[in-house]
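Troubleshooting: if your tokenizer reports a length mismatch, compare against these two reference records.
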Amino acid sequence: MSPRKLVVTVLVAALALLGLAWPSSAVPAPAAPVQTLTWTAGNSTDHYLSAPATAVAGETLVLFKNTEALGSTMTHTLTFDTTTPGYNHDVDLSISANPYDDQNGEHQATITLTPGKYRFHCVVQGHEKMVGELVVTGEPPVDTTPPTVVANVTGNKDTAGNYVGSATVNLTATDTQSEVDKIEYQLDGGAWTTYTAPVVVNAVGSHMVHYKATDTAGNVSPEEMASFAVVNPKPGDTTPPTVTASVAGDKDAAGNYLDTATVTLTAADNDGGSGIDKVEYKLDEGAWIAYTAPVPVTAPGMHMFHYRASDKAGNSSAEGMEHLTVVSSDTTAPTVTATVAGTKDADGNYVGKATVTLAAADAGSGVDKVEYKLDGGDWLGYTEPVAITAVGAHTVAYRATDKAGNASAEATSSFTIVAGGDTVSPATSIVVSGNLDADWRYIETATVTLTAEDNAGGSGVDKIEYKLDDGAWTTYTEPFEVTGLGAHSVWYRASDKAGNVSGEKGGSFLIAAAPPGPDLCPDSDVRDTVVLGAADSQVENRDVGTGCTINDTIDDESEYASNSQFVAYVRAVAQELVDNGVISAQERDRIITAAFDSGIGGTSDFVKPQPKNPGLTKLEKNSARYL
């Protein structure tokens, strides 16, 4: 009994003791849970400071905090993945937060979670390692709705609507609850075939394509049909088509196009008669592209627009060319401003740290890039606010360039950073934890925890840094795991808000592999292929990763009420093997077909083979293995 059904049963019993009862028509379902989940981010580009790992299904309030108080000086996002297979894709959420935005980096949103697993990550460039998973529990809805499937027939048509030379049938299916398991089609009364790619039909004559789809819950869509005819192209066409180009747009006095030149192609096959098959173009040295609509050319500079056409008889026109030049009408440079933020003393100096934020705007072609340089250094691309902690006088120079190439005049902002009176560096310590073997080696993984205190200095710890083995120095935010087998060393240091840095310390440890696990099937079925009863699937009988083979895993020796029941059981086991990466989807289908052909559970004359061990059925062995 599920936890949900158990709660309802207890409530019904309690009401019965009070002389009350639920209405006889139905027991009301409990209300969907309302919960709050919080994510936090700091000054790291490889992980969130904190993130929930589990939740319950239902309406959920999401809080995303990326604040200066958490040590952040950069933009992060909390984005739910909607494309990677194996995860729920029903939440479209992407929150961008910066400590200096109008919410001071604190944002919230309301979403609805369903049972399953979600993947979340940061989409800011360079932050790809900030990723995690959220497992949502609850009762999933029962899927009884079949998928929908549609057919789209494409190709070149004559005036009567017939496809000339060939027709291509494209099938697509969707399912609102489960995922689509397979699409099948039948061409002109032939055998049902699994659809994997568009079907090209080039036989001359009338055709009918029947099609249907099945979801992973076993629901099958109603069978539908598309009809069409394929005819031969007109014979005797040896004349290539004609194609011309015209260019439109606003011009300057020199004949250059301002901002955009739009190229329109026109093709005809009046002399040949077979009709236009395709028109193509390429811009400068690019690839040939099918022409479907007028082409806007916006990149400033000189361009060569190439074009050609071919008819349905295979005749191609000579390549044509159109020369054009595009210039920008934008001659105004962008504007750029700087804002310096931080805690000031009575003299206007920044205590411990100053953060410089740059903002640029361009009413014409748009801002292309913003750059800055600190104290006469090299120009750097600006992407987010810059935190400066070095004590002393500083000058930040900055500029912006728009997409038309106009650059703003260089501007500067000057300020001074002073220490807060703290001259004592923080104290640091390290703890390495994990399971040890008899030789004091960590088994499989070791967890490194670093701590720092600034009790003597008083300004407070600003950051802890570490480097693993020969890696780069990395900001420490939480304990991290080391999994590589062999010897490892960790170096670490800390700095306080006054700029004092502790001396580097180091430690080393060893990681060893875990001893091999027990063989769960010592008396394994090692036949070469997966055989169900007398039906051979021709799928390799490989080990599933526990010492057991696929034949050990599928129980074909128990009693089943019907062949359909046995096939449903085999379908579930085979899908789990697909999910675990043991077999492919095609091998799953062959195993399911063998289950159908085996006759197990049916009323045929099939004679079931005797178990290799009459004292213990395969079902009992499998049950024991999973207990």
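Reference record two:
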Amino acid sequence: MPHHEFECSSCIPERKSHAVVKGEGEDLTSCLPEGHLLTIPGTISERGCAYCGAKHVIGTPMKDAIHMSHGPVGCTYDTWHTKRYISDNDNFQLKYTYATDMKESHVVFGGGDLLKKNIIEAFKAHPTINRMTVYQTCASALIGDDMEAIARDVLKEMPDKDIFVCNSPGFAGPSQSGGHHKINIAWIHEKVGTVEPKITSDYVINYVGDYNIQGDCEIMCDYFKRMGIQVLSSFTGNGSYDELRSMHGAHLNVLECARSAEYICNELRVKYGIPRLDIDGFGFEPLSDSLMKVARFFGLEDRAQAIIDEETARWKPELDWYKKRLTGVKVCLWPGGSKLWHWANVIHEEMGVEVVSLYTKFGHQGDMEKGVARAQPGTLAIDDPNELEGIEAMDKLKPDVIFTGMRPGEVAKKRRVQYLNAHAYHNGPYKGYEGWVRFARDIYNAAFSPIHQLSGIDISRDPIATDKGFMTRKMISDVKLIPEEANVEGERPYTGDFDCVTKLRGKVYDPELSRNHEQAAV
């Protein structure tokens, strides 16, 4: 049996079916963990709720709207400013967050008047912003506040405004994925088709399922524009409220994240007949294939090939430089839903790293199927892990770097395991050819950080060689790594009390072969 039982979860036998180790020659019928189920009581899940999935993931990247939460202030604070959804309107949606700040009295007597007051106050505070999304929370859902009726009353007083109500309380699904579905379906049925688009090209697309994390969306939209394609709307990274109301005018829906936004693509196909095409913006080969897929739909293959050739010639040598140094580095791939399978194979093929584990907190069975199928034998796949299981996996697998979010990332640092933020990135964007090199650079800097290696020295216990203080000065320069056995006369490897600093997986720092970091970095 491929199932893996964590020692820390042995008292919860149901957890065993949620973790598997992929074996040699096994097909997906025998090596898939159960997924997208209600969290087992007692496991202390780290999942996000459905409200978080609607507001934090889908709604907030919309750049020119006030995002109001009708509920306690804690719900709003927890979904604000933790992802870098940048925009070209001076990041309005990142600077401000809004909550009605429901108290016990509102739960008892109703919060309708409070919501109306807050909506009007927010619009008056920002006279240039005429659009708003109001999100339901558990508290306002449980008492039954009619947010749609309140929004209609406000619009009678402010007819130049527009309000979208998203009924997605935290308990609306087993995880934040339930909120993705709620807001997708509500938007297509309530707002799409209410504004007519301005068409400026013979080739028009909606770019769906991208949230412009550190500029991801801008990278991809630039490729499309260079091909002569009009991006009518981006759902929802750097997206305009009214542009997203005109999604029905596109010729094609280009879908990036099939976990968070496939719902609206499917509804657009049913309601307006717009076809859906799934792409992948991560990695040289997947991205090249994706650009060519979009080009074939419109007959623009020559334009796409020109972009592919230009970008590959510029950035492939940089990627190859990192691959030589990253080959054999062990990583745990613990991101959100779609990155589970977007990254599972391509980081191994194009960067040389070894994926020893993958997990998802809110992914569906389809995400696990694609992720496990692309992973190497021996990979530990986990659904909805908790903190203790993550610690146990790190202690057993001993990865060099973990790609995950901030909460498990902080735990990893306490275990002296480097982590890269897979949700908001460290130094992104990571999409596109240049972005993929940035990702490789961040992995390289994490895996071979001298400062991180120094953190393993306990100055109260470990001997420190005072005659080798010069090493710290040498270590802060960017240096190549060479196999220890490759040293020649005059190239002495650093040894002794600083072995834990200078020796990394059989390699040593060689300052004589140091490379100008400006040439290596992006």
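Descriptive notes for reference record two:
- Residues 128 and 389 are 48 Å apart (CA to CA).
- The chain has four domains: 50-190, 204-307, 315-446, 452-520.
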